Hints:
- The protein is globular.
- It has one domain: Heme Oxygenase, Chain A (Up-down Bundle), CATH 1.20.910.10.
- 68% of the residues lie in helices and 0% in strands.
- By secondary structure, the chain is an all-alpha fold.
- It starts with a helix and ends in a 5-residue tail after the last helix.
Amino acid sequence: MxxxxxxxxxxxxxxxxxxxxxxxxHEVSGMYSNNSTKPLFYHTPxxxxxxxxxxxxxxxxxxxxxxxxxxxxxxxRNVTNSRTMKLYMQNNFYSIYNTVTLLKQVxxxxxxxxxxxxxxxxxxxxxxxxxxxKPITTFMNKIASGExxxxxxxxxxxxxxxxxxxxxxxxxxxxxxxxxxxxxxTREEMNLDIIRLLAKELRRRxxxxxxxxxxxxxxxxxxxxxxxxxxxLDSACENNANKLHEVEEVAMMALRSRAQLWNGVLExxxxxxxxx
Length: 276
């Protein structure tokens, strides 16, 4: 049902190859007025598109409170231009990498292709807007060659803030429900204002609208996998009090870690005006 409701929005984005960025963004913006579909991004009053967890474990008051607080983090008000957008994207990659890696551990049917495609589209988008992706590709190559997470992060090109976040969140989880919870609560969505900044930068650099639409479609596929992970988490917990407590602990760890990651990025925004 979710996929069927999302189809009109996906088709709309696909049609952007025949239109311009302004028309695409206008249509995507209009999707926010229909809370019943939420086809591409998830809307909150702060315009922060954190995945809305539609499952039993969302009833945990402390988790809901932390999600609400995170949605109001000042980082989202401070990504206002090309420079800050690039800094946000560069750091957001590691949040995305954690989500993708954790989802791969779950082995949901043939999901690896969709997950790899999302990472590929995100890195491509970074290159297209002029972000140096060398630290990221070096990191991924080290992981692919069998190096430990800690060793792969040992580079002067990766900030201590990112290293702390990755080592805190990227550690091995001991059970299925913990891995699922970590994958769900490490998920970070761009808000619409950042999408607009991306479109503006792509247009300035001479790219066509399909450059952005490919990322949006890959993003929707990842959202579908997160929805599936929510269902799997409900089944894995089966109203078991101990498991639900462990899910709460993992969720809070992931949400706090994201908040600390954005604290560091906010400091970079304030103290490195010529970073890009």
